[in-house]
Specification:
The chain is α/β, with parallel strands linked by helices. The chain has three domains: 157 residues, Nucleotidyltransferase, domain 5 (2-Layer Sandwich); 68 residues, Winged helix-like DNA-binding domain superfamily/Winged helix DNA-binding domain (Arc Repressor Mutant, subunit A), CATH 1.10.10; 170 residues, ATPase, nucleotide binding domain (Nucleotidyltransferase, domain 5, 2-Layer Sandwich). It is built from 15 helices and 14 strands. Strand 4 and strand 5 form a beta hairpin. Helix 10 runs antiparallel to helix 12. The longest helix is centred in the C-terminal third of the chain and has 26 residues. The two termini are 35 Å apart. 44% of the residues are buried.
């Protein structure tokens, strides 16, 4: 569920540079080369010049500058089979070139992690809870970020470019579905998350909706590289999503594109949520979100986490038959609803692919994708081109990882339109 403009991809107002350094605003051609190398894993200078249409001299100057800045490093020379002359030297990203901290504030848990320039998670902490208490969450975020920074060497601290935060825009919404204390959730309606965290830190802070952040993580690190345009769906406590067009995150005029959780559904089966009238129109949130399965399992006196762990490990002997029935019913209903949403989406935009991920074990996501394919087989797709469905692999880390990417994306990616929305210039 993406957001209103108040909670779009937000960078520090006025280009605040607290805690940042000259790693920051790279020239555009530098950004293009960094992005190309990130997506390829490593390329020699000649191939970089060919792919970017830049002169060999320009590429050499830029590469040498980025090597001096320790953002890039040289790999071992490679000689192509059958060719004579000097071996080529692939250039790759330097993992120690930059670091970023990611924070995910969820409805059921808090995650704080740090990544290197390649996106590898170096440290991670998770704090589960029943409901998102603002006092607990902001105090814990401050504590965990401080703990991470204290472990860094001076050279690493110098290369820490910022903090990216991913959270639902409407943490105060859907109180009935969450069965949460109304007063606690209502407090979130008055809180600017980015400002709250920034006031406690000496680093610039970016903010994105959690599903948007997960979409960015997919775009940069996972299957998003396979498609130029795709619909992204993340099955969390509430289902959300994002849109990528021409290899670029599309946020819409009000930064609300990809709000798939609010997509209307024709019906909802009885027993899956608060709505019991099967003829009542509902949203995708009420048909394909994890909270529905959790509620059903709890109503049977079962621990949802324990059941899902057993299912992921295929320990069926440890799971009551009633739990398996709840799980399979949820999968079938979620798949049918998501297939309807995909059909609606491709009638508007000709997506090349659909990527589906979530907070479930990978085995569950794969099951869900298979069932969605089956449900699409039953849909009337006349006049439409069916997109390819792919299971994401980032899983529960996707949102915090996407948050951590925001400072790196802002400082090093060539996407100028998104950078302008971030309030960040592209350098000289």
């Amino acid at each position: 569920m993406t957001s209103t403009s108040e909670y779009a991809l937000n960078s520090p107002p006025g280009g605040d540079s607290r805690g940042s350094n000259q790693l920051g605003m790279r020239q555009y051609n530098e950004r293009v080369i960094l992005q190309l190398i990130r997506r390829s894993g490593g390329l020699p200078k000649a191939e970089i010049a060919r792919l970017t249409n830049l002169s060999a001299q320009t590429v050499s100057v830029i590469i040498n500058r980025l090597l001096d800045d320790k953002l890039l490093r040289k790999q071992a020379p490679q000689r192509e089979k059958g060719k004579v002359g000097q071996p080529s030297v692939p250039i790759s990203l330097n993992p120690a070139g930059a670091y970023s901290i990611g924070v995910k504030i969820g409805r059921r848990s808090l995650d704080v992690l740090m990544i290197d320039f390649l996106g590898k998670v170096l440290t991670r902490v998770n704090h589960p809870y029943n409901f998102p208490d603002p006092d607990f969450i902001f105090a814990r975020i401050e504590q965990e970020i401080s703990a991470i920074i204290q472990t860094l060497k001076p050279a690493q601290r110098h290369r820490l470019v910022g903090i990216g935060v991913a959270a639902p825009n409407a943490l105060g919404g859907w109180q009935q579905e969450l069965n949460a204390p109304a007063a606690m959730l209502a407090r979130w309606n008055e809180i600017n998350i980015r400002q709250q965290i920034e006031a406690r830190q000496d680093l610039p802070v970016w903010f994105a909706n959690d599903a948007t952040a997960a979409c960015i993580a997919e775009l940069v690190f996972d299957h998003g590289m396979q498609f130029s345009s795709y619909l992204y769906l993340f099955v969390g406590t509430f289902i959300g999503g994002g849109i990528v067009l021409n290899n670029t995150l599309y946020t819409g005029i009000n930064n609300n594109a990809g709000a798939v959780g609010s997509m209307p559904m024709p019906t909802m089966p009885r027993g899956l949520g608060t709505v019991t009238d099967s003829a009542a129109p509902v949203q995708l949130i009420n048909c394909a979100s994890r909270y529905l399965l959790e509620d059903q399992l709890r109503s049977c006196g079962l621990d949802p986490e324990q059941v899902l762990q057993h299912l992921a490990a295929k320990n069926y002997q440890d799971i009551p038959a009633q739990a398996i029935e709840c799980y399979e019913t949820w999968l079938q209903n979620a798949a049918a609803a998501i297939a309807f949403a995909i059909t609606s989406a491709i009638s508007i935009i000709d997506f090349e692919g659909v990527i589906i991920d979530g907070i479930f074990p990978s085995t569950t996501i794969l099951q869900l994708v298979t069932l969605i394919e089956d449900a699409l087989d039953r849909m009337d797709l006349e006049g439409l081109l069916r997109p390819r469905l792919v299971a994401g692999t980032l899983g529960n880390d996707a949102r915090a990882l996407g948050g951590a990417i925001l400072p790196l994306y802002s400082n090093f990616a060539p996407d100028r339109d998104v950078l302008l929305k971030l309030g960040v210039t592209t350098g000289n």
